[in-house]
Design brief:
Length: 318
Amino acid sequence: MDRIGAGVMGTSGRVTLKDVAAASGVSRATVSFVLNDDPRQTISAATRDRVQQAARDLGYVPHGVAKALREGSSRVVVLNIDTGMEGNYSSSYVRGLDAELAAHDHVLLVRHGRHTPRSTQQVLDAIAPRAVIRFGETYLTGDDLHDLGGGWRDGLAAHSALQLRHLVEHGHTQVALALPDIEAPLAAARLKFTGHAAMNMDIPVPVSFAVPRDRTACAEAVGRLLADAPGVTAFAGFNDDVALRLLMALRDLGRRVPDEFAVIGFDDNGFGAYASPALTTVNIDAEAHGRLSARLALGLETSGLRPPPARVVVRESV
């Protein structure tokens, strides 16, 4: 959730309207009319094509609104959310971030998907945002015991430990950490923090395995895990989606939850209440994290923004 870039880049070497006008043999005003698709202007198709081609050849990227140029940045804050980071945590985080920015007369732009340095630079060039925030950085940190947003107090490390502790408190010391079968940005951190938490609780570090989406393949993966690690009595799901797959796989294998195995989810997507048995999970309210990120991006005071503790939603699967 840390700020990774802000403000407008230097103008040295930047392609300007003047450059496009010179390359296409028209005035700067004509270039502006064409590139902004001004409906009030009558410009021939040939001229439009010539201007647009020149802009493409030169790699022209519009600066954004004139106000942003005058002020050095716009009142837009960009949030990059990588694929696989969506969930209850991200929804509540965005809600808090958006509300806090709006309270300070700024607008939030959320970008989903895979973000590269080039695509981020294109955003910087196009709208000169006040700041660009990469979702999850503070939440993932976990190394500073006194950090504001993440780590072992309010972040992924603490929440991973909370999930594992609930299983241990119910008598389960042989645990398997179930991960998605696709690349997940948080997977490595979850493995690390769950391992640290297990050592702090003086239990074996949980084994880990991937849980496929396909129902038959999922049951086969769970069956192999139980054959390789027969002492396992509990499963900690990477998220609720993975945990719900586990419930179905164990049922398909003829195994009983919670009589034989416990299953706990993570990040409470709301669907676990409708499973049979209903899914125990970890609920995380990240609205304060979002508000904190907004204030950090705007250079404002951050005191008094303490996230509420994550909590275990106790249902029937543990």
